[in-house]
Amino acid sequence: MTEKPLHLYNTLNRTKEKFTPLNPPFVGLYVCGPTVYGDGHLGHGRSAVTFDLLYRYLLHLGYKVRYVRNITDVGHLENDADEGEDKIAKKARLEQLEPMEVAQYFTQRYQENMRQLNNLSPGIEPRATGHIIEQIAMIEKIIKNGLAYESNGSVYFDVLKYNEQKPYGILSGRVIDELMTNTRELDGKEEKRNSLDFALWKKASPEHIMRWPSPWSEGFPGWHIECSAMSSKYLGETFDIHGGGMDLMFPHHECEIAQSNASNQKDPVKLWMHNNMITVNGKKMGKSLGNFITLNEFFCGDHALLTQAFSPMAIRFFILQAHYRSTLDFSNDALKAADKAYKRIINGLRNLRMLQVPEPGQIDADLEKRINEACDLAYEGMSDDLNSAVSLAALFDLLKAINSLRSGQIPSGALSEKTFARMKETYETFVLDIFGLIEEKGRTGHVLENLMETILDSYTDAKSRKDYAMVDRLRAKVKQEGILIKDSKTGVHWDYEE
């Protein structure tokens, strides 16, 4: 357990601050989930892994976390605008399906990807279509408070009027005068009073499939109101942490702040967190740019930009190796390096489990110091705004000692029982519980362990008989499966090829 308190970077004030829950030990965490009209890509994976890391660490620190991650299944129009076709309805029209068939299909595929990445499931995963009543009620409150207006059956948020009471742009740092300058003027045919106003409710056109009754028209909610209504329903009018990708900071999260203040007269969130983007050749990876690679394509290697398939744990490690607020540039070489490093970590876990509690011996004071410092650094990294890169570096320091103990290069008695126990607990806790890295099912299980035990027996027997041709054949056969047979002072064992 770390002695240093957790500090997190708050996008709202651009500083790292000590995390103190509103109602300890309870923590309310809301994260923007996907719009389910296509398969999740690596950018979706990064956001999900980032906030899974936060969730896991909060749980490890002893907090009781209510984690809510929504599913957007209506209201998200093309180009994130107030006009145009609903993204899910468009997909449904092209595929000749019902919109809910599209939403259900891609929701299930997204959830399966999350399981493959070993992300813990959120406690609540609300869908926008299941909360139409709450959204209508929130819109009615905003209208009652004089900060929204109805126009031809649609309802719009009055940004300029709101800005007279509280600054619009407080999260993203946008200044409203600049927004006015950079936004096109109304052409006289628009329903909005001002070009900055955004939709809370849209009247459905005759061809629009997804529609619900409301006091203003048969229509559908605006994209931004969905998260405001669902987060306040499950976490209260003000809660601890709201997360998402930095591309959602404006306008989506900015609008959430405005809506919640207009409805409830209070800021909805104490601390805003945003993960940075995945880039491809310096450009954001995204569906709108057409340069995205889906998670399923990574897992099977079926994409022109990929030279091979990459396992879910290799992808997870690739994401974890960089601090969540830094950009992460995709390349095959970077993914291959991540896969190799992941296997080193898992080999270390296997080797650690084979080590026995040290017998009393000559304690190496310098080694003890290095191991305890590495254990401290692992926690210090995580407590410093989830700096997983620092914590992983500390794990690799522990890994060197683990492998040296396993090979016999460091005698067992060089460590005290207390330091050995701390090294074991820290390494296992970080690998499995905090980083969520697991030995993948294709590479694990009793069948593989039993098979390798038999092979190692045959290998040892061949060596004792000086049948080196058999020794070489066994080495070559298992190497084809990504496994290395290793001889050491402590005997024969196997590792995954790194």
Main beta sheet: strand number and arrangement?
Answer: 4 strands, parallel
What is the structural class? alpha/beta
CATH architecture of the largest domain: 3-Layer(aba) Sandwich
Number-wise, the strands total 15
Give the CATH superfamily of the largest domain. HUPs
The termini sit apart by 31 Å
Give the integer mean of the pLDDT values: 91
> Into which percentage range does the β-strand content fall?
5-15%
How many H/I helices? 16
Domain tally:
3
Name of the level-1 CATH class of the largest domain: Alpha Beta
Tell me the Rg in angstroms. Answer: 27 Å
Please give the order of strands in the largest beta sheet: 4-3-9-10
Describe this protein with a few key phrases:
Isoleucyl-tRNA Synthetase, Domain 1, 4-stranded parallel sheet, 3 domains, Rossmann fold, elongated, 4-stranded antiparallel sheet, alpha/beta, 498 residues
What's the short version?
With 498 residues, the chain is an alpha/beta fold. The protein has helices at 42-60, 87-95, 99-116, 132-144, 159-163, 176-182, 223-235, 249-264, 295-300, 312-320, 332-354, 365-383, 388-407, 417-434, 446-464, 468-479; strands spanning 7-10, 15-18, 26-31, 64-69, 148-151, 154-157, 198-203, 219-221, 239-245, 269-275, 278-280, 283-284, 328-329, 483-488, 491-496.
